[in-house]
Amino acid sequence: MSMDHLLRGHAPISDGGWALLDAEAKERLIAALGARKLVDFSGPHGWQYSSTNLGRVESLASVPAEAVTARRRLILPLTEVRAGFSVSREQLLNFDRGAADTDLTDLDEAAMHIALTENIAVFHGWPAAGITGITEASPHEAVARVEDFNDYPERVAKAVEVLLSSGVSGPYGLAVGPAHYTAIIETTEHGGYPLFDHVRRILGGPIVWAPGVRGGVVLSLRGGDFLFECGEDLSVGYDYHDTEDVHLYLEETFSFRVATPEAAIALAAE
């Protein structure tokens, strides 16, 4: 895949510096890109890949000649997503000299912002990008909120029961935002059994930390229900530099669509 559009060769950054930036970005993104752990991922198909085939057509109202019908193929354009950040040139030079404490706070924040965008689009939708999220598409009424996390397994079991009743097989996964994930991790049920283990047994699949998720989402992991298509996978590119800083960005292109709306159910946030 050609990476010329990222203009990395124009940046005043050594090979070691680029390796540092790529490694830091990967570390932060792997943790935060919760949606990718639960939906079908296709790609990367390259920077020039621009649309997802929806496999549908629409009839055209008119044609240039008589006795002819015409239908137009429907597509979902991929969306380019970019989050900018900067790194001090002095910090990069110090790294090349052997410093082990390079300040990449701005990169870490950019990685979180782009992960939030992706997770929110997948789970809650992004109308401006033509993306309908999993919770928007689901026909099931959200499972009511619980005050006591000791009741959380019952809530998840109810969600699984609804999916099973709809003919949706497992295993199932659970996506939750940071606060709920921490509560699940830290809660011990009566009798000393960890809540995290109990919920995983009910699901038969993972509990995923997914910043941006409101409440929670239980969804089938059987495959074919939720389709994430990636053109350019997340990459670090060069924008410009001045005497103090190098200005860079994280970038990706993607689309998302729900093939089976009944294969997921929301756990209400309120």
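(ticket continues) Second input and output from the same batch:
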Amino acid sequence: MFQAVSYEGTRSEQHTAVLGQLSALIRDEPSAIANLANAAALLNVFLADTNWVGFYLYDGKELVLGPFQGLPACIRIPLGRGVCGTSAAERRTVVVDDVHAFPGHIACDAASNSEIVVPIIKDGQLYGVLDIDSPIKSRFDDEDRVFLEKAVSLLVEQL
């Protein structure tokens, strides 16, 4: 069962607490959709200065909108297009300080100014991406990248 934890201490301590919460939320739950929905909700509550947290799932052709928290979003994203499509195609985390300067950026929410996208890879296969937007330029740093990659690793174990 989920137990709320206060987000006090250093960023590293906060990240450790949230990863523990995520692990507890998804443990023993076989539904990928339920786990992704809870992960989006948890990250949305924890991460300050964000306006969209969610997942796009790969259907074998393109990324399709999955569980998320925020305003309605683009439903389908081709591989290689925008930040999500680039992360998925290149299978690497992409951190963008200013989305308006990113070639091919897909503007789902005009309020978004920075973005981080972490690919979800299971057994060498693309499963989807974790996408987080912020209205603040340069919102995401390397510590966020490491934390979110660990969160995705926990999710991959349950997929």
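Agent notes: The longest helix spans residues 142-158. Residues 11-158 form a domain with the Beta-Lactamase fold (CATH 3.30.450.40). Closing as not reproducible unless the customer responds.
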